[in-house]
Amino acid sequence: MQKTLQEIAEHIGAELKGEPQLAITAVSPLNKAQKGELSFISDKKYLNHVESSNASALIVNSAIAEQLSGNLLVMKDPYLGYAKVAQLFDTTPRPKQGVSSSATIAESAQLGANVTVDANAVIKDGAQIGDNAIIGAGVVVGEKVKIGANTLIYPNTVIYHAVEIGKDCIIHANAVIGSDGFGYANDKGVWVKIPQVGSVIVGDSVEIGAHTAIDRGALENTIIGTGVKLDNHIHIAHNVVIGDYTAIAGCTAIAGSTTIGKHCTIAGRVSIIGHLEICDKAHITATTFVNKSITEPGAYSSGTTFQSNKEWHKSAVRFRQLDEMWRKLKQLEKELGQLKDSREDKDE
């Protein structure tokens, strides 16, 4: 595959400086790019790598463009430009179009135009698959599931009954959507299961990472908004609502009935307890433990950063001593106050 620099400029909305008919065959990192390949620079600190790079063209912003010559695509956000070019040159293989002879499809299931169903997939009663959707090998689509047009579901994903998935979604291998939420009542020490009769509603243009699990709601639905991006190994419990265009990194766990706003970012291994409200545009850093609602946009953090093992052991000892140290400090404050009062009395 190849595109001219002019075609790429038009696709990403960049100003072209250089040879319009230059053929580009791939997008590559600056230090790995070869002749005929395109790279990008989003920070001036990488300028010193340009001279040693073999890239035939670069995506840059206007400030960086002033310091360079050659074939340039100039735009406000070079990283966004890179993302759009990478889509043009995406080489991810797709299953051969059509329905595999080893797939099991219920008679009452409805398949749209140009649907692909790969080997050993199962589509159960009443399921509806939109036009141009791709159902990967070994995928299980439960009863009355709805999957929108152009959605891609990678192998061995399980979608439980009555789940709804929008159009233009990507669901990676071994994701589980619509499994039971963790709901039990205690009867004198014995756990009594609460049937989870809600579902999961996934909006359009959502991407769900490998091995991510999204529980169905207990009574109401678990909702994943439009444009949400979920990394691998995320757990989303029952009745959680995630607002549009929020992105969540791997190994994060969100307990039941928590609502997360729009345009939030949640980094890796964050823990969020249940029944909280997190406002729009909240940005939570890695390993943060969120135990109360967030009402103001901004960045939030908790936890400690790493130290050498020796330093960490010292810090752990001091942490255990904090209560005793606090009591001593309060006592010293009290004694200092008494001493001050005594001196003031003498001065009078």
UniProtKB/TrEMBL annotation:
Its EC number(s): 2.3.1.191
Any one of the GO CC terms: membrane
Catalysed transformations (reactions): a UDP-3-O-[(3R)-3-hydroxyacyl]-alpha-D-glucosamine + a (3R)-hydroxyacyl-[ACP] = a UDP-2-N,3-O-bis[(3R)-3-hydroxyacyl]-alpha-D-glucosamine + holo-[ACP] + H(+)
Species annotation: Kangiella profundi
Entries under SUPFAM superfamilies matching the protein: Trimeric LpxA-like enzymes
Gene3D superfamilies listed in its UniProt record: 1.20.5.170, Hexapeptide repeat proteins, MurE/MurF, N-terminal domain
GO molecular function: N-acyltransferase activity; UDP-3-O-[(3R)-3-hydroxyacyl]-glucosamine N-acyltransferase activity
InterPro entries tied to this protein: Hexapep, Hexapep_transf_CS, LpxD, Trimer_LpxA-like_sf, UDP_GlcNAc_AcTrfase_non-rep
Family annotation (NCBIfam families): lipid_A_lpxD, PRK00892.1
The keyword Lipid biosynthesis is annotated on this UniProt entry: yes
Self-association and partners: Homotrimer.
Residues annotated as catalytic: H238 (proton acceptor)
GO biological process, one term: lipid A biosynthetic process
Function (record text): Catalyzes the N-acylation of UDP-3-O-acylglucosamine using 3-hydroxyacyl-ACP as the acyl donor. Is involved in the biosynthesis of lipid A, a phosphorylated glycolipid that anchors the lipopolysaccharide to the outer membrane of the cell.
Protein name listed in UniProt: UDP-3-O-acylglucosamine N-acyltransferase
UniProt record similarity statement: Belongs to the transferase hexapeptide repeat family. LpxD subfamily.
